[in-house]
């Protein structure tokens, strides 16, 4: 994941901004003592990217990955709409309780940019994606970096068209969505009224995307490590923030770990899960691997 990459991450201020002032107000209706659901995973399960994660002799990468993590941010669906049988295979290979969080095809977000032609494409995408059944988590739509508020009407039409039975998260990357307070508030209101999560992206070169504005009871966080020692204290800070949001009423925490060089993603994820288990009383499996015939936790 090259987005937000910098040459000198040691010079970046990774401090998580204060909560948006509307966070506590937004979460208060959800505050009922219910323990939140946590889904933590990587962005892909490819052996070439996640080097040294798979034990020698692993025949099916997804089967092993799903034995170690409870979710995947499915980036493959950004590049094409797979045939129905592929979704059925993914469903069959993963255990009960596992969830896929697929990325909307780039035909909708990048090539046609939410124009009037995207609705038939979105319908085709949802037709096959729905084959994941109860293993389908939130679908996320990532807009192009240069998709700006001049396209507001397109966003409104798409949000109003979107079938509400499919949970959706949206990621906006153009700075004008957040720099202009009037635009930002209109966007937040639109997402909130339609129960759409506002994606948070934590990456070195785009600190402006840390708007910290939740729009429903879901925190959909895409964390991009810098392959630097600062990656771990950054995760510690997220643990503290999520603990606070949990106390305020947050019910759904979806946290996906990326790296500029993905080979360390399972290691960072294991560290994060272990910390979650200790500080937020979760009981997630800590990912393991097999080295020299011995099972070892990654962290």
UniProtKB/TrEMBL annotation:
Q: Which domain of life is it from?
A: Bacteria
Origin species, per record, is Flagellimonas allohymeniacidonis
Q: What is this protein called?
A: DUF72 domain-containing protein
Q: Which Pfam families match?
A: DUF72 (PF01904)
Read off the InterPro entries from this record.
Answer: DUF72, UPF0759_sf
């Amino acid at each position: 994941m090259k987005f937000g990459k910098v040459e000198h991450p040691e010079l970046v201020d990774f401090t998580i901004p204060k909560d948006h002032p509307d966070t506590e107000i937004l979460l208060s209706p959800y505050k009922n003592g219910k323990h939140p659901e946590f889904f933590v995973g990587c962005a892909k399960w490819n052996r070439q990217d996640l080097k040294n994660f798979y034990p020698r002799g692993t025949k099916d990468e997804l089967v092993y990955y799903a034995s170690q993590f409870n979710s995947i941010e499915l980036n493959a669906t950004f590049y094409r709409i797979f045939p129905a049988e592929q979704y059925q295979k993914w469903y069959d290979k993963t255990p009960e309780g596992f969830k896929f969080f697929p990325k909307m095809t780039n035909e909708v977000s990048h090539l046609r940019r939410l124009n009037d032609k995207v609705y038939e494409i979105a319908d085709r995408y949802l037709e096959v994606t729905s084959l994941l059944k109860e293993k389908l988590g939130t679908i996320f739509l990532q807009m192009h970096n240069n998709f700006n508020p001049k396209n507001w009407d397109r966003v409104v039409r798409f949000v109003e068209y979107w079938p509400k039975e499919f949970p959706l998260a949206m990621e906006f990357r153009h700075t004008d969505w957040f720099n202009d307070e009037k635009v930002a508030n209109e966007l937040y209101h639109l997402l909130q009224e339609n129960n759409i999560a506002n994606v948070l992206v934590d990456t070195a070169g785009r600190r402006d995307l840390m708007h910290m504005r939740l729009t429903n009871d879901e925190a959909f966080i895409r964390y991009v490590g810098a392959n630097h020692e600062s990656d771990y204290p950054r995760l510690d800070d997220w643990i503290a923030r999520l603990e606070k949001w949990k106390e305020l009423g947050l019910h759904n925490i979806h946290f996906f770990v990326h790296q500029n060089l993905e080979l360390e993603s399972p290691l960072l994820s294991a560290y994060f899960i272990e910390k979650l288990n200790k500080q937020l009383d979760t009981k997630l499996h800590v990912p393991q691997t097999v080295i020299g015939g011995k099972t070892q936790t990654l962290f």
